[in-house]
Design goal:
The complex is a heterodimer of chains A (119) and B (343). Chain A is mainly alpha-helical and 119 residues long. Helix content of chain A is 76%, strand content 0%. Chain A has one domain. Chain A is built from four helices and no strands. In chain A, helix 1 (8-27) packs antiparallel against helix 2 and helix 2 crosses helix 3. In chain B, 44% of the residues lie in helices and 15% in strands. Chain B folds into two domains: 3-122, Phosphorylase Kinase, domain 1, CATH 3.30.200; 130-342, Aminoglycoside phosphotransferase (APH), C-terminal lobe (Aminoglycoside 3'-phosphotransferase, Chain: A, domain 2, Alpha-Beta Complex). Chain B is built from eleven helices and ten strands. At the A-B interface, helix 2, helix 3 and helix 4 of A face helix 6, helix 10 and helix 11 of B.
Chain lengths: 119, 343
């Protein structure tokens, strides 16, 4: 059953607004450590918002690429574990163009969710 | 947050510090102005004033592992090189005596003080907040001086005679890679970029130094204090060990420690060459540039794995902390950097 509004992103926005506009001003200059924690919380809420938007598409695309790269079916954790085993054993390395293309695409999506301002 | 419980813990800490400081100074002391520094979830840093009966005030700092409940789950993820507070105290005192800017070390707390495993040192002026040091106008002069100071201080630090130090663990390039792989296995989250990086590093591992040298282990922006004239004290000695001194030079240049000043590898303040030249000019061993870069790339991967293990402390139930949990999502920053460094 569909949930009533606010939707998940709307709810995240409402929580962020409260923390930013009410909690943070009340703590700044009073308790530096708690104020810092609130900023950490705000940053995490922003990640959740982006993950809500982009996460499912990114996961689906990663899974498709992994299947193509490894040449068989499987779920995301299993295929990633297999790729990791190959990399640790030295069966693939940075000279493998398909591997590097896959990793670049995957990490580009991950950073777009976790910290789009990273450079 | 349980305010009443926090208040109790605070009163207990003031009580313990009063007892410990009275003993150390051998006179009546009143403790005032106790505050906790931000950062450091498992290891706490508290600032306070010791006020004597003649009105004089000493600004002091307590660094401690908080007392742990008997039923607390074990810390499954401590860095295997991590030293206890008493060893850290001895390392910092030795470094200070041999010319490294470090706080003046006063005493190690006794168990009966009830303040946990910790020590008290004198407070040093300056800030460790990277963004302030990198951007505030009043630090302009400091910014000019810091790259060379970092090199000079590292050369001095690496010259501390091993005989002056307490026994320390040896951490080699090989053992760091093994530790990181173990951490990846324990968290059980597959990270292809870290695996790629570790295999890449393993194939290009520099030879171990003939005799292991003294390594700070966490020498980076954010872990030293500086004022308008530059660096005033090197902090965070908790993973000091013996190994390849180039490890410190590489770690300092990891992009994560530039705090946005990405074009200035030397801690966000200058070029690698400025750092290396100052190091060699101050008597440091001639730097093999390739090996220093190798340690920088290893450091990048290492910080990424540390992000995962910090989050794991929370996820495993060892230490409930939103701050630790959130660090897990920073691991990907180093994956971005590694893909650039490896291609």
């Amino acid at each position: 059953m569909a949930q009533d509004r606010p939707t998940a992103p709307e709810l995240l926005d409402a929580i962020s607004g409260f923390l930013r506009n009410e909690a943070l001003p009340a703590l700044e200059g009073v308790d530096a450590r708690l104020a810092f924690q609130v900023k950490v919380a705000l940053n995490s809420l922003a990640i959740l918002g982006r993950e809500w938007q982009r996460g499912p598409t990114a996961d689906a695309a990663e899974l498709l690429r992994l299947k193509a790269l490894l040449g068989h079916d499987g779920d995301l954790p299993t295929l990633n574990a297999e790729l990791c085993r190959q990399l640790r054993a030295g069966e693939r390395d940075e000279r493998d163009k398909a591997l590097m293309d896959h990793l670049r695409a995957t990490i580009a999506e991950k950073i777009a969710i976790a910290n789009p301002r990273w450079r | 947050m349980d305010g009443a419980r926090d208040g109790d813990a605070r009163r207990e800490l003031v009580h313990g510090l009063t007892k410990a400081c009275s003993r150390h100074f051998d006179r009546a002391v009143r403790i005032d102005g106790l505050f906790r520094h931000s950062g450091g979830a498992s290891r706490q840093t508290w600032g306070f004033d010791a006020i004597f009966d003649d009105g004089t005030i000493e600004k002091l700092v307590l660094r401690r592992d908080p007392p742990r409940a008997a039923d607390a789950p074990p810390q499954s993820f401590e860095n295997s090189l991590a030293i206890d507070r008493a060893t850290e105290f001895a390392v910092m005192r030795a470094a200070g005596l041999h010319g490294v800017p470090a706080p003046q070390m006063l005493f190690i707390a006794e168990p009966a003080d009830g303040v946990g495993d910790g020590y008290v040192m004198k407070s040093v002026d300056g800030t460790a907040i990277a963004r302030e040091l990198l951007r505030a106008p009043r630090f302009e002069r400091a910014r000019q001086r810091i790259p060379a100071q970092l090199g000079t201080i590292l050369a001095t630090l690496h010259a501390v005679p091993l005989a002056a130090l307490p026994p320390l663990n040896v951490g080699t390039a090989e053992s760091v890679i093994a530790t990181m792989r173990r951490a990846l296995d324990i968290t059980g989250e597959p990270h292809p970029v870290f695996e790629l990086a570790l295999s890449w590093l393993e194939r290009r591992m520099p030879p171990a130094p003939a005799t292991p040298g003294f390594v700070h282990g966490d020498f980076r922006t954010g872990n030293y204090l500086a004022d308008e004239n530059g660096i005033t004290a090197i902090l965070d000695w908790e993973i000091a060990h013996l190994g390849d001194p180039l490890e410190d030079l590489g770690w300092l240049c990891v992009k994560s420690w530039r705090f946005g000043a990405v074009d200035k590898p030397a801690g966000g303040f200058g070029s690698r060459e400025e750092l290396w030249d100052a190091y060699e000019a101050a008597g440091g061993a001639k730097i093999n540039r390739d090996h220093a870069r190798w340690w920088e790339i290893l450091g990048t991967a290492r910080w990424g794995v540390i992000c995962m293990t910090q989050a794991w402390k929370h996820l495993s139930g060892a230490e409930e902390s939103m701050e630790l949990a959130s660090i897990g999502r920073r691991a990907v920053e180093t994956e971005v950097d590694l893909l650039e460094l490896l291609s």
